[in-house]
Amino acid sequence: MIEWVRTVATMGVNAILPPRCGGCDDVTDTTHAVCAACWAGLRFITAPLCVCCGYPFELDDSANIGGDPDESGQILCGNCLQKKPAFDQARAALVYDDHSREYLLRFKHADRGDLTPLLARWVYQAGRGIWDQADLIVPVPLHRRRLLKRRYNQSGLLAAKLSRVTGVPWDGLVLARQRNTRSLGGLGPSSRKREVGGAFVVDEARAQKRNLAGARVVLVDDVLTTGATANACVRALKQSGVMHVSVITVARVVR
Length: 255
Ligand SMILES: [Zn+2]
Ligand SMILES: [Zn+2]
Description:
By secondary structure, the protein is of the alpha/beta class. The protein is built from 10 helices and 6 strands, in the order αααβααβααβαβαβαβ.
């Protein structure tokens, strides 16, 4: 669309539906913006971080750093040093806390698909250095029954937007959730792993069409909690020949 047409169209929409902050629903003066109070509450993840899982090392956090940097200067966290996750690396824009949860809940359940550009911008920045080498963006899929109820897959919206920004193709059908898993909220790490283990399958015909063998994939989701869901997706992708998977999320749990 020509830029001025878009601007006029946006003005038209704004006249009916004034843009609202993603954190508190207050009316804000610019589209996709965050009000000052909500902005102040957001905790963006910054270096130094674990080169593998993206866990941020805070200044008083030296106990969590697994070891001295290797000769390339890369640091792993204690968890990754003990056991490497199935994914090759993970990055997130925000610490998952009461503030970022507000955005994600609105994005997921409150028909705030209009937050996609804002969240995609954050996710894009969190994945700096990864997009250039990626062959395909894959959203974590919803089960079709949940998709019907919710009407859209929030991770699919992010993947589509990120694809437009980066020029990397995306595919929301190559990976499917064959079992409708319970909500993982309130479950511990091992129950989560059991619940999502084997829940994801790759559509082999589509995988071939997408040349997944040897490919580098970016898996997009809203939150990284224990990594159980991400790892289950990554295992399915790697069984189909994917070589390298980066998981990029809007937020991640830091504890
Ligand atoms: Zn706000
Ligand atoms: Zn780590």
